[in-house]
């Protein structure tokens, strides 16, 4: 590692040199110093100056430290061949203006990939607007997307341009697009086809130039087949699909992501904790039901448990013991139906849980199963109406939406619990 080289990542010049060299770097370049030593360490010497000391250049921890130092704060980082192929493909797609559809489980980095596409495109200096379609009340989503004129509805005391016009010239990420109501999907399709929007209360369309990036954590072809997503909108968005695998299936990303998170949550100057090889082995052995979001929780927890130590070891790794809805614990525990229409309603309360002889009935399991049963029972009682179901459970519709999405990912067929097998509806 004694050679001096210059490379470019995301347009930013990077100057790599041996720690003993004193060659002046190019102006405004980020400087990475590499040196062999007795232990792995990362030290931020300045806003653009990082020193990495390593003992074994080929260890997972040393490679993660070096690659994270080379990557800028806004650069995505990946080491798994599958992830590297996706980012290479995304960089080629970024040069065009075609819509992009990103599929992948919750917490796998779909927004990170979306920002990567935007930052590598000709629109990089224009706005990037991210909208979570599941996080907004359905009654407000149309107004927030398309805008409205003053007086268009009660409470519209001033006009609003909406997210689509706010992203004019740039990119608009529609996250969890599968949660968008069917009626609004039709309006979005027209906006995409005509490159214009009609604000609520207006009669004249407004031209826009926006690149749409859609993200979904569900199987959209299945959503189309079951009538929950418009087929024409799906084909309009699915010009070039990108798929992100669950973190469990890309283990070579784990060490890099863990070290990048340690750098993100460390001071801007001074020593940065390093992930030890023993900790990396433990992290790779986990199944990561919460994907990258869960990994970040584990790393932040490890920082607290390490009490300021500069090496994160296996002793500092503590996993979530009970994910909200874990398919391994739910598949055999939720009955095919809570009850049939011909059975008395009391039968729903006496169905026993199926447990293996080795499984412990811990409190978290009981709580999870009880919550699942309560949601499914309320959903069936309310004939699949989400507003009534949420009201009966004493939670917001948004909270219910997240619970149902988690249950779907765990393999629970939610639609079977609505009246007559009807789909879950508002």
Name of the CATH superfamily of the largest domain: P-loop containing nucleotide triphosphate hydrolases
Q: What is the CATH first-level class name of the largest domain? A: Alpha Beta
Structural class by SSE content: alpha/beta
Task: Report strand order across the widest sheet.
Answer: 1-2-3-5-4-13
Percent of residues in beta strands? 15-25%
Based on Cα principal axes, name the global outline: globular
Domain module count: 3
SSE arrangement, N to C: EEEEEHHEHEHHEHEEEHHEHEEHHEHHHH
Helix amount = 25-40%
Low-confidence stretches: 1-9, 322-361, 419-423
Main beta sheet strand tally, sense and closure? 6 strands, mixed
Roughly what is the average pLDDT, rounded to an integer?
82
Task: Supply the CATH architecture of the largest domain.
Answer: 3-Layer(aba) Sandwich
> Could you say what the CATH topology of the largest domain is called?
Rossmann fold
The tally of beta strands, per DSSP, is 15
